[in-house]
Amino acid sequence: MKRLIPTLKGDGVSIEFIMLIRTVLAATKEIAFRVSQGELSGILGSTLDENIQGETQKKLDVLSNQLIKDMLLADDQVRAIASEEEDNVVVGTQGAPYIVAFDPLDGSSNIDINGQIGTIFTIYPARDDVPADSPLQFQQPGKNQLCAGYVLYGPATMLVMTTGGPTRCYTLDLTHGGFLLTQEELSVPTDTKEFAINMANSRFWADETTQYVNDLIQGEEGPLGKRYNMRWNAAMVGDIHRVLTRGGIFMYPNDNRDPKKPAKLRLLYEANPMAMLIENAGGKAYANKQRILDIMPDELHQRVPVQMGSANEVETCISYYD
Ligand code: AFP
Q1: Which residues of the chain fall below pLDDT 50?
Q2: Residue 105: what pLDDT?
């Protein structure tokens, strides 16, 4: 089985960029080890703090953020980082070529139930026209991403990543501690019968979303002519991994629970990296009518509605929106 570095070299990725990817992955391997120890590693449970999003931080959120942050800031390829758990941009090495954004621990509500969780990351070129500590460093559309990926801490620890070419899947081999290529090229089936959405929010949805989901659950007799099944992991990494593996549509639409926060998912370190992985596997990724990778961000922790996955299902879904 092919290892990560020869695979990346074969894809024409430069040595310096491979070294940066290795830095990110070194931190995720450390997280994977702690996760596999569960209660024994003392990482379960909450802290007394909230992050910039107003969410209570879990111990593993804080630990994962610190591990990734420390390793990236010690890497002289990194000019700045942005994280779900950091209010502002954190400066690395002045003049370095890359900036990195990450969600250190996606799916925090699954930590204490031994469910699927993961780390999502993305790498962009640094901007020379703005200071290293400026949020403008990250005000680039997702199509500028040089690399996008996630590490899923599930029964097996898996890395799904693209450096601009195919979306590839690797599995962490615990015997030698490296990621081995286990699927050369993920391909999202164009049509499916599976959707993922948090139905508990249905009373807060816009009419378009309600109409589409009503049509999904009508079965063979309904306008979509198919009997759909539903899955929801409460961790985007888990849901997107399923979609990348066997197809489906994943949605976190706008809702009116909190007028100040119509959308839940963050553009920079959730929607954009997942959109690149999905598109490079032949799927589609939209925020209602707009292709996610074309969105020019206004702010660091910007939120967007998300509809992504199997191309035909996403096309049908977004046809419901104005
Ligand atoms: P946390 O990492 O804060 O638990 O949030 C996970 C997430 O951002 C995304 O991974 C899930 O798809 C979504 O939130 C789940 O949201 P609900 O809890 O509203 O279903």
Answers
A1: none
A2: 96
249, 314 Cβ separation under 8 angstroms: yes
pLDDT at res. 47 = 67
List of domains in the chain: 4-183 (3.30.540.10), 194-318 (3.40.190.80)
Structure confidence by residue, pLDDT tens digits, 256-304: 999 899 999 999 999 999 999 999 999 999 999 999 999 999 999 999 9
Residue nearest to atom 15 of ligand 1 (CA): 234
Phi/psi class of residue 51: alpha, beta or left (left: φ > 0; alpha: ψ in -120 to 50)? beta
Question: How big is the chain by its Cα radius of gyration, in Å?
Answer: 19
- Binding site, by residue number, is 84, 103, 105-109, 198, 264, 270
* Side-chain half-sphere exposure of 91, counting CA atoms within 13 A: 8
Through-space distance between the first and last CA atoms of the chain, rounded to whole angstroms: 47
Name which residue sits closest to atom 12 of ligand 1, judged by CA.
236
